[in-house]
Structures are given as C-alpha cells and as structure tokens.
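agent> Task received from the user: take the single chain below, predict its 3D structure, and emit structure tokens. No templates, no multimer pairing.
agent> Plan: (1) validate residues, (2) run structure prediction, (3) serialize to tokens, (4) report one or two observations.
agent> Step 1 OK, no nonstandard residues flagged.
tool_call: predict_structure(input=
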Amino acid sequence: MGIKLCRLMSSLLLMVVAGCATVDYQPYEGRNNLYHGDGGTKVSVNGVDFWANGAPTRKFTILGVVTSEVGSGVGDESIIRSAVASKVKEQGGNAAIEMSSSEKFSGILKLSPSLYSAANTKRMRFAVVRYTD
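)
tool_result: status=success, residues=133
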C-alpha cells in the first residue's frame, strides 16, 4: 500500500508542478514577412492551430516567438499548448509553429525515505503567426 500511495503522491506533485507554465513572448521584426508553408502536422487547441514538422499550407506572417516552460510529466505538452494558445490570441495570431522542444534535468525530489523522483523541465518554442488569406 505504501508504494501505491507514493506513486499517487508523485503523480499529484508532477501535475501541480506541471500546472504552472511560464510564457515569454518576444515580437518579431523583419523584412519580407510573408510566408507560405508546404504543410505538416496540425493540432488545434482552444481555436489555435499548432503546426509541427512543417508550416501552414496558406499565407502567413510571423508576429513573434513564444517560449514556454513547465515541469515535465504527464500532459506537459498539453499544458504548454494551452498557455501558448492564450498568448497567440492575445497577440492577434491564429496559429503557432513549433520551432523546438527540449527537456532538461532539474534535480531529484525525495518523496519518501526510499523513493526518489527526477524533476525535469519541458521547454517549447513557437513562432506566433497570423494567417493573411
């Protein structure tokens, strides 16, 4: 029973840590800011299209770049995408193109005298875009 309780507590701790996503937005400035992608994979979250492995198959401009971090664990990408979707809408965008995704080791958590868990951070970067057609 003790191991099951520790696993449950570990899962709950990861969900609490994962629930606090940080979002940093930086506006983009540049010439010739009109692009047309060849497609890729797409997931929609809260009305925002998230593109990976490519770019939208329509004309778009880049509004900025957003970086988001959250404690890694079950659902970390969903939490990040939800936080990023809010920022995309706030900036007047329609979509986000994934630029990078990484995970870094942050330390060890001692959950009980004999149970430890790794604490990692998930980081994702997206280009915030607005469709122009």
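agent> Step 4: summary for the user.
Residues 2-131 form one domain.
agent> Done.
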